[in-house]
């Protein structure tokens, strides 16, 4: 009947955004849906009659339009919150946009209730205000964390601009740029020539001189874009560029140092497992394990007494673990096989270099 009109979206009781997506659909195609429903001639079917009566009420169309015009932003925000790996800054920036949009709605009996419900939802989550304070401290909105946040850690306020790890993609990209600058400035000679890395940096940032890069680190600072240089450095390293390879080897060393600092404090029931302690590795930097491995192994062999450990990555979503924990709390018997939730991609054993298949 209406071949160019998409089918209505299905509603999922566990996904609030699906209900708003349905409202958006019926708002956009209201006349089309009304035309189809009102042409149905089945008075004995009560649901059809109810639908026809509702569609003839002008208030129904007005309600659809009101919801989309004032709260349509929630559709995009809810979709984005379903994405993994959103930073704290990204999440709270979106929440700020939502609250600003809700506050801008002209007050009436409906908007007041929605605003109050939103505020109650935030207040019911005890961790929201804590995370908001940390976010505000990180972006400089507040200069000091409140006492109720500091009680969780005596050193959290020291990490505003401190790199917790030096092996993330942004730090690897920064290290490559610094090697080039140190050489060009005559400050420190890198272990290998910078020619290919410097050409890559200039191409990535679309610059010609050192001074040109300042815009990317100050006025138009974009950490994700700077970090994306790391992916290109991976390719360069796999094309046998020695400076790139040395940067990843150094990063592998820092990985080993970070892990060993934690492992020595781990409980015996964790370290004495089959394959040693299991380390869950999350983040795109681990996709470059072939470049990180030599530095990792060398430091572990020369600086620790750790005999073995297993590096693994998840095969499933973290939400599965949350669901299993909830089932335990509620005493619900759910079948589970933890071995299917992860894959061991590297097994470290002192004196032996093994991949996940156990070959030397």
UniProtKB/TrEMBL annotation:
It comes from the Eukaryota. It comes from Aromia moschata. This is Uncharacterized protein. GO terms for molecular function: N-acetylglucosamine kinase activity. InterPro entries: ATPase_NBD (IPR043129), NAGK-like (IPR039758).
């Amino acid at each position: 009947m209406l071949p160019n009109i998409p089918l209505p979206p299905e509603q999922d009781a566990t996904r609030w955004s699906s209900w708003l997506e349905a409202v958006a659909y019926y708002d956009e195609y209201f006349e089309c849906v009304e035309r189809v429903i009102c042409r149905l001639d089945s008075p004995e079917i009560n649901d059809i009659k109810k639908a026809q009566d509702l569609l003839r009420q002008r208030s129904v169309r007005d309600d659809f339009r009101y919801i989309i015009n004032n709260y349509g932003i929630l559709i995009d925000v809810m979709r984005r919150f379903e994405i993994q790996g959103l930073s704290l800054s990204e999440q709270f920036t979106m929440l700020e946009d939502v609250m600003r949009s809700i506050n801008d709605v002209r007050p009436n009996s409906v908007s007041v209730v929605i605003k109050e419900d939103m505020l109650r939802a935030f207040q019911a989550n005890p961790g929201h205000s804590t995370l908001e304070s940390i976010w505000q401290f990180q972006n400089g909105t507040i200069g000091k964390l409140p006492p109720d946040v500091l009680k969780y850690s005596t050193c959290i306020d020291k990490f505003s601009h401190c790199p917790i790890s030096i092996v993330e993609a942004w730090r690897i990209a920064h290290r490559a740029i610094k090697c080039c600058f140190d050489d060009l400035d005559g400050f420190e000679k890198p272990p290998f020539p910078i020619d290919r890395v410097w050409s890559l940096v200039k191409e990535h940032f679309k610059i010609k001189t050192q001074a040109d890069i300042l815009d990317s680190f100050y006025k138009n600072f974009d950490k994700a874009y700077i970090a994306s240089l790391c992916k290109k450095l991976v390719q360069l390293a796999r094309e046998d560029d020695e400076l790139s390879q040395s940067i990843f080897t150094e990063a592998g060393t820092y990985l080993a140092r970070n892990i060993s600092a934690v492992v020595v404090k781990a409980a015996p029931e964790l370290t004495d497992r089959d394959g040693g302690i299991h380390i869950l590795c999350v983040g795109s930097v681990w996709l470059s394990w072939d470049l990180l491995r030599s530095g990792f192994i060398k430091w572990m062999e020369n600086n620790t007494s750790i005999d073995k450990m297993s590096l693994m990555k998840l095969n499933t979503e973290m939400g599965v673990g949350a669901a299993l924990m909830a089932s335990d709390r509620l005493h619900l018997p759910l079948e589970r096989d933890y071995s299917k939730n992860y894959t061991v991609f590297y097994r470290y054993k002192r004196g032996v270099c093994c991949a996940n298949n156990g070959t030397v």
